[in-house]
Design a protein that fits this description.
α4 links the parallel β5 (107-110) and β6. 35% of the residues lie in helices and 20% in strands. It is α/β, with parallel strands linked by helices and 494 residues long. Bound molecules: ligand BES, manganese (II) ion and zinc ion.
Amino acid sequence: MHVKIVAADPLTIPTPALVVGCFEDGPEGQLLSRLDTALAGVISTLYRQKEFTGKRLKVKLLHTLGRLPAQRIVLVGLGKRRELDGERIRQAAGAVAQALRGAGVASSVTVLHCAAESAGMAIQEVVEGSLLGGYAFLQYRTEPKEQVDPEELTLVLAKKSEVKQAERVCREVEAVCAAACHARDMVGHPGNVATPTFLAEQASTMAARYGIRCTVLDREGIEREGMGGLLAVGAGSVQSPRFIVLEYRGGPESMRPVALVGKGVTFDSGGISLKPREGMERMKDDMAGAAAVIATLQAVAALALPVNVVGLVPAAENMPDGRAYKPGDIVKTMAGKTIEINNTDAEGRMILCDALHYASTFKPAAIIDLATLTGACLVALGTQATGLMGTDDGLKRALKKAGERTGERLWELPLWEEYGEAMKSDVADMKNAGGPHAGTITAAWFLKQFVGKAKWAHLDIAGTAWEEKGKHYLPKGATGVGVRLLVDYLRGLG
Ligand code: BES
Ligand code: MN
Ligand code: ZN
């Protein structure tokens, strides 16, 4: 979609749809009253009849029937004025984008940002909400769709002097949202398309396009590195595993890199510890961490951020097979530690442990991993927050702040040493799965054994990687979670 910024009187612009934010407090404000007058009082009537009252995320399309240059007025509820924040504006813009897609309106003009006290601050959120909310994954539909892709969005400003700055913000948001939507695409692809090889191709194509380094290890390369965990998980699949290394250098040579690690299980059947059949199809999204890492490097390169970032993706398919790893097996990891397998469905940590150890060899300033790691995280936090655990308070604090700013919220769980009791093995250094309690934490405890002295944060995105019903700026399907969060965090470092 093309996003434009203009300075004009919004009421004079011919467009299929003019989008206006409305508060629950009443149809106040100069613009709304001018619109109301032009439309013979329809807006105040809607409020009076309680048909549209500015309730959050409610969207109302009104035809102007020639009374205005705009064909339609789109009212979107913002809730109470004093509760307004960036996330509400982002959500409102997303709800509008979904409504316009459904109504077959491809082009619109918006003044939604004017609802904020300083319009300059809300431009980012309006563009984000519109680009993310207007997304749909329809690549596999061969029949004509009853919706249209958004083509053009115009933000109207009052002052010409503000246009340049707004355009700069807009170009940056476009780069980040393009990356987030690339992540969504990768996750949306089914397991028969999105294989470890596919992820490696996505990474190397992206890297070539944005001028960053990409190295891909195949099965032999992974063997040479001694990545026993990744090999074990990939052993049961005809799709051979891959280990992807992306290196972006935007900061000074002396600056230690941030290492991003993403779980890339392209399909998680559970392996020999097979999952129940209900809902197993969702396990195509078990590479959402990998997609977020690849896409974050894309965004960081597009924005030319003055930082150094390494992206690491262990990619494998977890399948039952004669060659598959099995309960009771003892696996030697790249770090040299041995793992007794008691559940082949706890495969994410088996590939991440090698990637985390590999990450530690870069002497990174920080390691951040993203993984759809545990069903227990979905149970604990639902879809509202990503689980956060780690070893460094400063890093966790910075990530939480990025979460508040981007709407990709994090909630911390404890990572006390005592949780390790559950992972004790009689025959190896540790087991790969704990008991029924605190599954999200015991998984993180396992990962912690492989990060060495590095400052490390673990993001369990099992609850936030996939949106079941579709809401505001998160249409049904993959959310692209992590990309905006990490870009925001990395921006703060440069
Ligand atoms: N990929 C799953 C976690 C998951 C489950 C993500 C549901 C999203 C929705 C992971 O590999 C897994 O199977 N974890 C097990 C761990 C257990 C065997 C210790 C789980 O959560 O049951
Ligand atoms: Mn699993
Ligand atoms: Zn998994």
